[in-house]
Amino acid sequence: MSKPTSIKTSEKVRDRLRALADERGTTITELLEELATRELTAAEREQRALEAASELGIEYTEQVEQAGQDAWAKIRAHQGSAAA
To answer: What is this structure's pTM?
Structure first.
């Protein structure tokens, strides 16, 4: 088990984390652990993209990477406009 540490944040953020944790029946620490493990780092996203391209038989070039980024940007833009 790792040793405890503290993270400095505003009271507003702390209160929101507490409310989110309470709604989920968990603690702030467990909520942060879940958030941290759910989000991928840039290196992890890159590795997954390489693996996906390989499985599809596609060479992962800069053009393929850019096309993927453009597609995700369009998806996010659509999701944002659909929520409005």
So the answer is: 0.56
